[in-house]
């Protein structure tokens, strides 16, 4: 059975509880307005290994690994939080986010809104997930053992109105979030757009590291 955490989010593992969450909160039919991450831990860590001029000509996939939840903000102001606790149970919340605890944009990291720009303004057409034979490697979360509810839900997809989808999954101790086309190919964005969101201080720090100072 699901467990309600102190912050209002639900800890779930069974197909029935996950389905009930998405049905109860009418996620299908909602339009995505913005995305927020609880942790600014997703920026490419080795920017200083690349020449900025060359990097600005490349693209990168709309995908991150993070240790915190993702908040999807819908056009009507409602929001949904989701997190895979690595290869463990899933946390889901509807209007549970305390955005005062989410990091504000300050130029030290580019935003999810830009990295996942192709899903902004898109409407969730349906939600897809399925039972598998795989079982969680780490079924306990904050002392709550979810192994009895484990039905092998390894990924949740929000199918969008252009047939692309947002994929949420766990990998060992990371939460993986990506935007993919119908055929599984990852959507991509120009590095130049991400670099524009970094502050001059951050860019200077990268430049200094490149020069070996």
Task: Indicate the topology.
Blueprint: E1 3-4, E2 10-12, H1 15-24, E3 32-37, H2 52-55, E4 59-61, E5 63-66, E6 70-74, E7 79-84, E8 90-94, H3 112-115, E9 124-128, E10 140-141, E11 144-145, E12 155-160, E13 165-171, E14 174-180, E15 188-190, H4 191-195, H5 200-211
Antiparallel strand pairs: 1-2, 2-8, 3-6, 4-15, 5-14, 6-7, 7-8, 9-12, 10-11, 12-13, 13-14
Count of the separate structural domains: 1
Shape assignment:
globular
How would you state the average pLDDT, rounded?
92
Low-pLDDT segments, ≥5 res: none
Number of helices: 5
Structural class: alpha+beta
Rounded radius of gyration (Å): 18 Å
Give the helix level as a range of percent: 10-25%
Spatial order of strands in the largest sheet: 1-2-8-7-6-3
In terms of DSSP E residues, the strand content is 25-35%
Question: Separation of termini?
Answer: 56 Å
The description of the largest β-sheet is: 6 strands, antiparallel
The counted number of beta strands is 15
What is the helix/strand order? Answer: EEHEHEEEEEHEEEEEEEHH
């Amino acid at each position: 059975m699901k467990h309600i955490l102190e912050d209002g989010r639900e800890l779930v593992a069974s197909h029935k509880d996950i389905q009930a969450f998405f049905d109860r909160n009418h996620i299908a039919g909602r339009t995505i307005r913005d995305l927020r991450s609880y942790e600014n831990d997703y920026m490419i860590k080795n920017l200083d290994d690349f020449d900025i001029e060359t990097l600005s000509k490349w693209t990168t996939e709309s995908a991150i690994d993070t240790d915190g939840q993702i908040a999807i903000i819908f056009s009507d102001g409602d929001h949904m939080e989701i997190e895979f606790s690595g290869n463990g149970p899933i946390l889901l919340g509807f209007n549970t986010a305390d955005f005062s605890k989410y990091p504000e944009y300050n130029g030290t990291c580019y935003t999810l809104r830009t990295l996942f720009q192709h899903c902004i303004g898109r409407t969730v057409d349906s939600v897809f997930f399925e039972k598998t034979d795989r079982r969680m490697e780490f079924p306990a979360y904050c002392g709550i053992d979810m192994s009895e509810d484990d039905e092998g839900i390894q990924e949740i997809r929000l199918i969008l109105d252009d047939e692309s989808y947002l994929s949420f999954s766990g990998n060992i101790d990371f939460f993986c979030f990506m935007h993919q086309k119908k055929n599984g190919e990852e959507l991509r964005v120009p590095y130049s757009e991400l670099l524009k969101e970094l502050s001059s201080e951050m860019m200077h720090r990268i430049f200094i590291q490149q020069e070996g100072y």
